[in-house]
Amino acid sequence: MRREPPAQRIVLDETGPGTQVPLSAARLATLLSCPGLVELGQGTAPGAWRVRARRRVASVRLGSGEAAVDLRIRPKVGVERLMYLLGFAGSGVDWHEDPLPAGTSDELVPALAAVLARTASRALRQGILRGYVEVDEDLAVVRGRLRAGDQMRRRFGAPLPLAVTHDDFSADVAENRILLAALVTLARAPDVRREDARALRRLAAGLDGVARLAPGLDLPRWRPTRLNRHYVRVLKLAETILSGAVPEPGARAAGIDLDGIVVNMERVYEDFLAGALRGALRRRALACSTRDSHHRLDTAGRVRLEPDVVVHAPGGPHSVVDAKYKDLGSGGPPNADLYQVVSYCTALGLTHGHLVYAGGTVAREAYRVVGAPITILVHVLDTSGTVAELRTRVERVADAVSRNGAGS
């Protein structure tokens, strides 16, 4: 029996110039099918290519056989801080940072498994979420309402069994389906510590009666409520895991296998900023809505806008905040970023917008728009350093936002 050749291992940093590696035609095709993961450029040596990460963090095996690539993209803030950002983004209320177990802090998948096991255990200790779900069944007695059309079509008028629809108080709700899928995904992932895999399987077994999600379909929808608030953090983490375990469209169309996890750092930063600001602004009598897609730029309603954060004062909208997971450098923000926030302010009737960058130095804090009563303020919120330093930076941005908005 012929042994499959080992995958070519490529290790990249999330930011920076990338690295130059020799690539066969088959492995080049594998990487070209995943343009959202890496950027490829011609190298200086024959057969060599420069591979650069695209704001993703990954621990993933792409392709198979002669085309297999073992791709590792390390976060610039470190795996432990990434886990903190992922956990915090779910609720934005807990600044406590739990250390990762020994042996998990250097690799993405083992760290995710350890954090998921810990976070899911905390959520499920407070009780498995249950709710009313609609169930179609064939029964000997009437329960709920009779589906007369199905009864006539499938039973040809026979009196029994009865085709009925009824509400069942069950654990088979969207939140548990998402959580179960994430537990199962990481329990069988490579490189996960034995004790974490065992904990994940035990937690999955506890979700008895919860249906498995069909692969390839969108995740079921849920929204935070009073009843599921103890699930919010673990569900945000589960959604990150499940979205990162699905091949991007180019890879899927090319038939490229994916085994591992990919994390979109732009989305992580946006979620973290929204969660952190929500808590900080609440203490300043302001509220936040995130990724609200009902806003429109034009009167016909054809151009949809989806700002990262809209800040609300008691009397109405206060300001808008847009997160940018990029380094500002030492210059000003790109024109396109300014145009984007101006369009948000125009559509929402706001006088102040805020751009928040993940790094760099602010050369000029305020941009006043000619011919319109709009001011764009620029901030930097770097996620490196200690948790105390990060909290201070968030409070500084929240102060600036609260002082610069409608009625302030």
What layout of secondary structure does this protein have?
Elements: E1 8-13, E2 19-22, H1 25-32, E3 38-42, E4 48-53, E5 56-62, E6 69-74, H2 79-89, H3 108-125, E7 131-139, E8 145-146, H4 148-155, E9 162-170, H5 174-187, H6 194-206, H7 232-244, H8 249-253, E10 258-264, H9 265-282, E11 287-290, E12 295-296, E13 304-305, E14 309-313, E15 316-327, H10 335-348, E16 352-359, E17 366-368, E18 375-380, H11 387-403
Parallel strand pairs: 1-6, 15-16, 16-18
Antiparallel strand pairs: 2-4, 3-4, 5-6, 5-10, 7-9, 8-9, 11-14, 12-13, 14-15, 17-18
Q: Can I get a quick summary?
A:
The chain has 408 residues and is an alpha+beta fold.
Task: Describe the protein.
This protein is an alpha+beta fold. The chain has 4 domains: 8-74, no CATH class; 79-129 and 173-246, no CATH class; 131-170, no CATH class; 283-403, Trna Endonuclease, Chain: A, domain 1 (3-Layer(aba) Sandwich). Helices cover 34% and strands 25% of the residues. The chain contains 11 helices and 18 strands. The strands form 5 sheets. It has a 6-stranded mixed sheet with strand order 11-14-15-16-18-17, with helices on both faces. A hairpin with a 6-residue loop joins strand 17 (366-368) and strand 18. Helix 2 (79-89) crosses helix 9 (265-282), helix 3 (108-125) packs parallel to helix 6 and helix 5 (174-187) crosses helix 7 (232-244). It is globular and about 75 Å long. The N and C termini lie far apart (74 Å). Mean pLDDT is 85; it is low at 250-256.
